[in-house]
Write a structure and sequence with these properties.
Two copies of one chain form a homodimer.
Chain A: E1 7-11, H1 28-45, E2 52-57, E3 63-68, H2 81-93, E4 106-112, H3 116-125, E5 129-134, H4 136-142, H5 154-159, E6 168-170, H6 175-187
Parallel strand pairs in A: 4-5, 5-6
Antiparallel strand pairs in A: 2-3, 2-4
Helix pairs in contact in A: 1-6, 2-3
């Protein structure tokens, strides 16, 4: 009989601290380039899929958490980059609802457009802004991943969702650089580890 | 400056082992009643929201993992019951893709219809069957929770999703008992802890 587990842990790979910038990143391009660097590092380091994310305090640009895709090495399909960034931010701020942690709010930068799982995680996180690099069409063009369904009008649903706090969405930030990161994963022989492929 | 975290852990509350049945649950009703008992225990125990889930090996009925909503006590909006059940099953079976772990496949029982986050988690899990108690309309009628958007035709999308393994979906299993569990949460003064409520 399978021994039942009662806890699981997800973590960043060793060496993550050396990737952290020493001063605040003051604009969207700097923040996205940092996140794309994390994704490239995860590829080169062979510590997960070609996706990264980070949570910032919006006004100050303070980095609150980073996330890397850890699905295969940590045996966990939940472990998308956005998931880890959100959970680590909530842990550091000691709340399940980031909207209660500071007046100016928090934003998630994601190297690629969130899949449906990460759309849902964004929905329940208390984040107030989502900034995206590559589009899902880029991901499907440049890698073997298939992104699955999203609710129709997903951007509009995030930005207009009574009675919950709206989430502003911005896409195509450093899109070309985000596409290059995805291409480098495929060029390095990176696998599509989606479940139940025939 | 916020200290960056590099790992987080989610866990079941103390006492979970005493809730586990001693012999296999051989049919859908028995499995769902067990899951509903877990949800009621989580309410009575004040260890999270009014939702529970479990993963079973389909043919043998062997229990692989349980999950309870742990959002508020563990400061984590990812910590829906389905999330914890899926992650614990994957940990025990040492794979991010449950479809590779055993020929007969695995099924997730959920006391309530998955929200969009848990729909996404089901999508990427490698599960091959999803069994649901209460409908989302029941949740919204009997509690203050609002379930958020799902992709149109979500059941059909799970059951027909080339190139991924199909996920069979069954709803309304022990629906009335599932509704009673939700009502008991509200009657006990259970809160809607959704993020960013105005």
């Amino acid at each position: 009989m399978t021994e039942l587990a009662d806890r699981f842990e997800l973590s960043l790979p060793d060496g993550w601290r050396q990737q952290i910038p020493l001063s605040p990143l003051t604009n969207d391009v700097d923040r996205m380039q940092f996140v794309l660097g994390l994704a490239q590092w995860n590829i080169n380091n062979k510590t997960g899929g070609p996706f990264a994310a980070a949570v910032f305090e919006r006004q100050s640009g303070e980095l609150i958490s980073i996330g890397l895709n850890r699905v295969v090495p940590q045996f966990c399909s939940l472990a998308h980059a956005e998931a880890i960034a959100i959970a680590l931010a909530q842990k550091s701020l000691a709340t399940h609802d980031l909207s209660t942690a500071a007046k100016t709010g928090f934003e998630l930068f994601a190297s690629g457009q969130p899949c449906v799982q990460c759309f849902g995680m964004t929905w329940w996180s208390g984040l107030s802004r989502l900034v995206v690099g590559a589009r899902s069409t880029d991901i499907e063009e440049l890698t073997e991943f298939r992104e699955g369904p999203l609710p129709d009008k997903w951007r509009q649903q995030l930005s207009d969702r009574q009675p919950l706090l709206p989430v502003e969405v911005e896409i195509d930030v450093c899109r070309e650089e985000a596409r290059s990161v995805l291409a480098s994963y495929t060029n390095a022989g990176g696998l599509n580890y989606s479940p139940g492929l025939f």
